[in-house]
Amino acid sequence: MMMSSSEAILKKVGLFADLSDKVESLGLLHRIMKIRKYPKGKVITEQGTSGEDFFVLIDGELSVHKKTIDGEDYNVAVMKSHQYPSFGEGGLIDGEVRSATIICETEVQCLVLNKSEFDTLCFEHPEIGLPIYKKIAQGLIKRLNQTSNDLLLLHRALMDEIRSK
After folding, report:
1. 5-163, what's its fold?
2. Segments making up each domain of the chain, as ranges
3. 13: part of which helix (H) or strand (E)?
4. Strand locations in the chain (E)
5. Helix (H) or strand (E) holding 62
6. What separation, in Å, do the N-terminal and C-terminal C-alpha atoms of the chain show?
7. What is the pLDDT of residues 3-46, one digit of tens each?
8. pTM of this prediction?
C-alpha cells in the first residue's frame, strides 16, 4: 500500500508515534481526517471553550495565547508547519475545555480529526485507538507532574518570602 503525503505527515505527529510503522492504520486514520483552511487572524480554538477536534498544522504559522488569572492575554509560543505540531487532543476524549487560544498568524492548513469520527474508528479498530489514548494519557500525566512541580516551587517561594519578613 502506497502512503500519501498526508499519511507521511501523520507518522511525524507525536500522538500517532506508536502507529508510525503501521501503514494501514495511518491510512484509516488519514481517511477520517479533513483538511481545513483558515485565513490569517482566524481563532481556531479559544481558551475556556469546549472543542471536539484535534488539529495537525500542515501549512502556515499559529500563535498560542493564554490568559492570566487577571484576564490578560499573553503569547506563549509560535507553531510552524515544518514541525507538524498538533493541538487539541483533549477534544478527542470528551470535548474538553481548551487550555489555550490558537490564532492564525498566516493563512493556515490543518488536518483535523473530529471526536465522533475518531470514536467510531476506535470502536471498529481498537488497535488504532488504544495507542492514541495511551499517548494522550502520557501527555496528561506529564502535564500533571509539571503542574505539581510548579506548585511546589511556588509554595517554596511563598514560604521563603513569608519567613524573610
Report:
1. Jelly Rolls (2.60.120)
2. 5-163
3. none
4. 34-38, 43-45, 53-59, 61-67, 73-80, 86-87, 101-104, 108-114
5. strand 61-67
6. 70
7. 457 778 898 899 998 988 888 899 999 999 999 999 999 999 99
8. 0.85
